[in-house]
Amino acid sequence: MQSYLFIPDNQIFLRLKNVPLCFITVKMSNTLAEAEQLFGSIGFVRSARASRIRVRILADSLKVSFPIHISENEAIKFILDEQKAILAKQQKLSTSQKNNPTIIDENTRMRTLTFDVVLSKVDRKDIFFSLKNGLLTIEFPAGEDCLLKQNQEYCWNGINYFLRKEAKRLLPERTKQLAGKFGFYYSTVKIQASKSRWGSCSRERSINLSFFLMLLPAHLVDYVILHELCHTKEMNHSDKFWRWMDKVTDGKSRDLRKELKNYHMPD
Predict the structure, then answer these.
(1) Are 117 and 140 in contact (CB under 8 A)?
(2) Which tops the pLDDT comparison, 19 or 180?
(3) Distance CA 256, CA 223 (A)
(4) Residue 8 lies in domain
C-alpha cells in the first residue's frame, strides 16, 4: 500500500491515504497533451528522495514530483485518475485569486486597508511610488514590460514598503484597543513580513503580525488580532480557546475563520 499527498498552492491540502499502488483502467489515453489540456502546463521532477507522488496544484498548472521507480506515464495516469479533485481545487484557487491579486499591471485596482494601488505607464526611466490621499500610484516606464518577473518584484517591493509602514502605524494601536476592550494582556507587538501565517503569539505573550494583514478587510484584521490575543489565554486550539473566540466575536468565529480562508498572501 502506498499513500499520496496533493500539495496545492496557498495552503489548500487534499490528502489521499492508503491508496493502492496498482491503478484502475480509465477510458481516456494517458498522454501528456491530454493532461495539459485539462490542467494547464505540467512540470515533472523525478526524485530519489520522494516516497510517493506529490502534486502541487496551481490555478493554471501542476508541478508533479515522483519516486524513481515510477514512470512519468504512471504519474500522468495518477493525476488523470484524480482529475475531478484536482480540477475542483484549481477552480477554488482561481476564484480565490480574484480576491488576492498578485500581478501588478495597468489593469490592477488593488485595495488595501488604508490605500488603493494603481499603476500607470509614463515617460520616465525608473519606477516611482507616490502615496497621497489614500492612493498609491506606481509610475512605470512606458517602454518597459511590467509583467517581467524582475519588474513585478520591483513593484511589490515598493508596495510592501508602504504596507509595512502602514501596518506599523496602525496594527500595534489596534491590538492595544482590542486588548483593552476585552481584558487581554500581552507583552509586545511586532510587525513582520511573514507569508506563512497572518499572526502568531509566543508563550511570553509576544504577538507577531504580518504586514500583509493590510490586504484584508478591517473586520478580518480584527479577527486575526483577536485570535492572537486569545492565545494569551490558551496556547492551543482547544474547545476552551474557541469559546474565547466566540466570546470576543459575538459567536461569529467560525464564519470569520471560513471567510479568512478566501484570502492569501502574495507569492
Answers:
(1) no
(2) 180
(3) 7
(4) 2-97
